[in-house]
Amino acid sequence: VIPEISGDRDGFAGEDASECGIDLGLGRGQLCRDDLKIEQRWLIDPNQLLLGPKIGEGGHAKVYEGL
């Protein structure tokens, strides 16, 4: 899953990780928007996705067949 990054800076107050505002939990600190680098080659155009029937579901996710 690729997280969506908005164009505004809300929740990302500064370069210091203690000011970023996204708590990763498990005592691992926080994540700044600038810390997340996704190469263009790994991005998928949502218009090219085919979503099939649901094949599974858990406490935190639903899994669909698709390509």
From TrEMBL:
Put simply, this protein is called Protein kinase domain-containing protein
**Upper lineage:** Eukaryota, Viridiplantae, Streptophyta, Embryophyta, Tracheophyta
